[in-house]
Amino acid sequence: MDVVASASPPSHLPAELPVKRHHGLVRFAHWLNAITLTGMIASGLQIYGAFAHFGPRGGPYLQPNPLDGEAIPEWGRLGGWLAGGLNWHFALAWPFVLTGLVYLGFLAWSGEWRALLFRPRDVAPAIQMQLYYLRLRRDHPPQGKHNALQKGAYSFIVALGAISALSGFAIYKPIQLAWLTALFGGYELARYWHFVAVWLFIGFTALHVALVLLVDPASLRAMITGWYRGRFPSHE
Amino acid sequence: MNDPQLSRRAFLRAGAALGPLGLAACGWDGGRGLRPALAGISRINDWVGERLVSHSRLAREYPVSERNRHFPSYFISDQTPILADPSAWALNVAGAVRKPMRLTLDQLKALPRLTYTVKHHCVEGWTAIATWSGVPLAALAALVEPTADARYLRFDSFDEDYFNGWDLTSAMHPQTILAYAYNDRPLMPDHGAPVRLYSPIKLGYKLTKYLTAVTFTRSRPGGYWEDQGYPWLGGV
Q1: In angstroms, how far is CA B203 from the centroid of its own chain?
Q2: What is the DSSP letter of B61?
């Protein structure tokens, strides 16, 4: 820390002084994405129901697939029938992709990416953080806006968003975008990765919500109001 | 923890916002309010998709050894549509053309012939590789000479009232054919005998079987499934 920064915070201010955590655009993108992604998954499951396998007609079918040949319950589907599911899916793809691009553009423009991108130098702090969570280390390791494990998680989810969008385009236009489809190993595999991404999204969201509520509930408020007033207010 | 009350309230607020979405999933097609909007976005997607189609971009061809044993055949009639008198069949080619024609099967077979082994993409998500032979639609168009204002094609069938509308660009794609042979044999009734539309650049539901007429049009024709909600372009 340089001299100016260490001298600037007046010592008489209360420790809980709220800090601005999330730009309005990030909060908007976060919640819009939560809604579109829910709709995309539900309409995607509707589409999956039309041919509940991965592979050519008659097999062999790609495995593992816990939902091979399974009917998706109605509460998890959006669209009512195949065409309804397709229309929801291809409509929601617009806000999903555009929000992602605007968000990535904002990260690049604002320099915020530095607080989020997991880089090689984050490996050692990530191990320390994991040791802390496993109670093998007593004190919380120092961190910036996010700790190294959070950086890993948030880098992963952005990459997952990109992979799900790209694999989606690969199965939407497998002839016109044949190069992209080939990148995923062909149409059948692209469809499979598109589905694997769904389970990773669901798994991530479950873990994400659980950690927010158990470890740092104040961060939920920060994602709504933008202001953080919790246990980890440190900033880079 | 700081101010847990506020955090909890914020969480409940977020839950209230997302709750209806979870309930709405239940196979909802958008209802009277949203369905037209979804159809409108589908038309925008068609507009983008039409611009992706390139005459120089050909669908990949496969070796005959990669053909699939299973190739399902769909039709909307209660029973396989079969001509009472196959010798009386002829294809009407008319509409916005200078030289409307009526072509028998033998006349079609005398025109340039294209054979390819390609992957079929069904809207349901399955694929199947098969060999198709037929006359390129572009060769037929050269005979009937479409007028300058012809922008679409309508394909009619004797499978009840099944029909499709196509954009001119996709119809004139070098791999779009009027197929009369499947896997080196004359087309069987299951696959649309005597002649069906085929192209690896479209989803299966666009490939009208049991053809009776090809009509060049100025305005956009609908389609049996398209009018019920399926994407109109159906390009892959």
Answers
A1: 5
A2: P
Summarised one tens digit per residue, pLDDT across range A181-194 is: 999 999 999 999 99
Q: Considering only the C-alpha atoms of chain A, give the largest distance between any 2 of them, rounded to a whole number of Å.
A: 73
Separation in Å, CA A232 to CA A65, A145, A146, B119, B207? 40, 8, 9, 55, 60
* Residues in B touching A188 (Cβ below 8 Å): 127
Contact assignment for A84 to B68 by CB distance below 8 Å: no
Identify residue B169 by its one-letter amino acid code: T
Q: B217, B95 in Cβ contact below 8 A?
A: yes
A58-81 pLDDT tens trace? 888 999 999 999 999 999 999 999
Alpha-carbon gap, residue A193 to A201, rounded angstroms: 12
Could you tell me the pTM of the whole model? 0.88
CA distance B56 to chain A (A): 10
* A99: its two tokens: 């929000």
Q: What percent of chain B has pLDDT over 70?
A: 89
Q: Do B25 and A78 touch (CB under 8 A)?
A: yes
SS3 labels along B144-184: HCECCCCCEEEEEECCCCCEEEEEHHHHCCCCCEEEEEECC
Q: Which amino acid is at A191?
A: R
- Chain A residue closest to B226 (CA)? A83
Residues of A in contact with B53 (CB under 8 A): 176
Q: Is the dihedral of CA A202, A207, A210, A212 positive or negative?
A: negative
